[in-house]
Design goal:
alpha/beta; Nucleotidyltransferase, domain 5; DNA polymerase, domain 1; 17 helices; 51% helix
């Protein structure tokens, strides 16, 4: 298959993963469309996907994705692939100012076909795959080339092709983050601020227990028990099975499988010394002059996006605005330092004027 695909000038890709179900997410399906055929590769049956590596890295082959950030990150994480010459139909749609960015909406808008998304959250790690699942997976790449052809024409007509291409290059550079369990993550749970003392010690034990159960059963942690239930158990500090069963949101399934373990967590929490929250790294706070410039840039970006009929992020990301504000307040005062040549050409003069005006505004209290 890869020998044939290597001769194609463009290919469409998609992946399906099992992060909604498994403790450790992995790529479970790779869908590929050439100009003439559709393919589905099963990474669970074929352990080594090295033959795909040259296709992704070849700059002469255009690779099409829709909302490809997740797919690129997963493929880099699981297989170490590198990417060049990407095209993303969702990014293109955003640059064109289209509001509905989903693939199903794009297919219906361009081709008049209604695609069901009911299998979007299917467990793609299960085998065997049903015929319905295979047909669903095929649809995720089958239309991408025709869609991209129409988008490219529109991008060129609107003078936005360079903006889209710059965003595609950024997609290629994305680096996967290793998702590690945080043993102190219970401090971030919603509702945690309402409890303290031994309840917090019990919540810590429940947090660690859920993770251990998720790993041993190869299930996503939220499928062991929801976070709000863990908080309520810690608040109640139940001593008996009946008291545990009375906690709001408790189910017979959780009681049967985890009741004894949860009561043991509560008992350990009662006996443990009070937990102390670890020191948080101090976040950098914008200086007053930086903040004024940032707010002025945000207002300009909103106005420019409305005029250009695109989302504000197409103009510049919020991170870029922060960098511009920071550069403007350095000794050289050059606000355009962090921008690409394209952004400098398109927005440079506007940004200089906004920065100059912001610097002339008297200090005002921050909200």
């Amino acid at each position: 298959m890869c020998a044939e695909l290597a001769l194609c000038p463009r290919l469409a890709f998609d992946t399906e993963s099992n992060g909604f179900y498994a403790y450790k997410e992995r790529v479970c399906l790779v869908q590929i469309s050439s100009p003439t055929d559709d393919y589905i590769v099963d990474p669970i049956a074929i352990k080594e996907l090295d033959a795909l590596c040259p296709l992704f890295a070849d700059p002469k082959i255009e690779k099409l994705f829709h909302a490809g950030e997740y797919d690129v990150l997963c493929l880099k994480r699981d297989y170490g692939f590198t990417f060049s010459n990407l095209y993303d139909t969702m990014i293109a749609a955003r640059v064109l100012g289209i509001k509905e960015l989903g693939l199903a909406a794009a297919i219906e808008r361009h081709f008049g076909l209604v695609i069901s998304k009911k299998l979007q959250r299917a467990d793609w790690g299960k085998r065997p795959l049903t015929h319905e699942m295979i047909r669903y997976a095929q649809g995720d790449t089958h239309f991408l080339m025709r869609l991209a052809d129409q988008q490219k024409q529109a991008l060129i007509e609107k003078g936005r092709w360079d903006d889209a291409r710059e965003a595609f290059r950024e997609l290629e550079k994305l680096a996967p983050n290793s998702k590690a369990f945080d043993p102190e993550g219970y401090w971030k749970l919603v509702g945690r601020t309402d409890i303290g003392g031994q309840a917090m010690a019990a919540l810590k034990e429940i947090w660690l227990y859920r993770e251990q159960q998720a790993e041993s059963r190869d299930r996503a942690p939220f499928r062991i028990m929801p976070e709000d239930l863990m908080v309520r158990i810690a608040q109640a500090l139940p001593e008996t099975r009946d008291a545990l069963a009375a906690v709001k949101g408790m189910s017979p399934y959780i009681i049967e499988r985890f009741g004894s373990g949860l009561l043991a967590c509560v008992e350990r929490g009662r006996a443990a010394p009070p937990v102390v929250r670890p020191a948080l790294p101090e976040k950098r706070r914008m200086a007053e002059d930086e903040f004024l410039i940032f707010e002025a840039l945000r207002a300009w970006r909103k106005e420019r996006a409305e005029r250009d009929k695109v989302e504000p992020i197409v103009i510049l990301s919020s991170d870029s605005l922060r960098q511009i504000a920071a550069f403007a307040c350095r000794h050289d005062g050059n606000p355009l330092g962090p921008l690409s040549d394209l952004k400098k050409t398109r927005y440079g003069e506007d940004i200089r004027l906004v920065v100059q005006k912001a610097r002339g505004v008297p200090n005002q209290s921050r909200p």
